[in-house]
Amino acid sequence: MKSPLTEFSLAGKSVVVTGAGKGIGRAIALVLAEAGADVAIAARTESDLDEVAGQIRGLGRRSLVVPTDVSSSSEVDRMVQSVLDEFGQIDVLVNNAGFNLRLPLVPPPGGLPEGLRMSRTPDHPITDTEWDGLMATNVNGVMYGCRAVAPHMLERGSGKIINVSSVQGKRAMPNTIAYSVSKAAVNMLTRVLALEWASHGVQVNAICPGAYETEMSGDQWQVPEKAERAAATIPMGRPGNLRELGSLAVYLASAASDYMTGQAVYIDGGISAL
Fold first, then answer.
1. pLDDT (tens digit per residue) in 84-143
2. In whole angstroms, what is the distance from residue 212 CA to residue 201 CA?
3. Is 179 designated active site?
4. 96 and 20 in contact (C-beta within 8 Å)?
């Protein structure tokens, strides 16, 4: 008798997760390992990766630490080759590395209207260096990862790519122009590659998180007044749980999603429905 829901198992699969040292990337890496995958993890800070790798191995899976700056195409190429050398194949790539900048293009005179104000008022226009740095990681890094792993997946006729985007790629918010534009770009990159590779057995989808308690969210969920204000903006009235996010990644990485490609899946407590 066939075991129930074997389509969700990742046993025997090899996965790469970028930005895996903390937050969303760490959670995705650990849940994928729990589902049976061997997981190679990449980020800039090796000490963070070592800790996560230990947790993955504690689940009985193999793990490979590959310190990588995804804004460098040569480092991403090296990362992919290192994983292929160690694991022999890459079944799933999770492009998660990214960061946010809370800056306007130009601060308007007198600031924003009351209903659009944030707790911290940015005091300068975004600079070329800030804009280019964010795009280099959030957009170029995703493209580099897809480009590096594609020849292997296309030749095998099989593969899953999961790009971590954001609800802010769809829903505009003040003082997030660079981040929001970068995530909208990731959504379109996802759709185009899904079409280009659909007939070759490679599925490309995006996860679009809403509000989660991570290092990137700062003290938003630790300070009661801030947490109450933030929760009031979410239809479900709470931030997401990182395990919920990891479970969605398991679905998109597994055979259960073989007929799904080119989708941006929002897991945001209802924010995108507003």
1. 999 999 999 999 999 999 888 998 876 655 555 555 556 688 999 999 999 999 999 999
2. 32
3. yes
4. yes
Please list, in sequence order, all residues whose beta carbon lies within 8 angstroms of the beta carbon of residue 148, skipping any fewer than 6 positions away.
73, 76, 77, 79, 80
Domain boundaries, the chain: 8-273
Q: Could you tell me where the DSSP H helices lie in 118-176?
A: 128-135, 141-156
CATH of 8-273, one of 3.90.180.10, 3.40.630.30, 1.10.510.10, 3.40.50.720: 3.40.50.720
Choose the catalytic residue: 144, 179, 251, 266.
179
| N-terminal to C-terminal alpha carbon distance within the chain | 45
Amino acid at 36: G
Give the pLDDT confidence of 45-71 residue by residue, as tens digits.
Answer: 999 999 999 999 999 999 999 999 999
| Whole-structure pTM value | 0.93
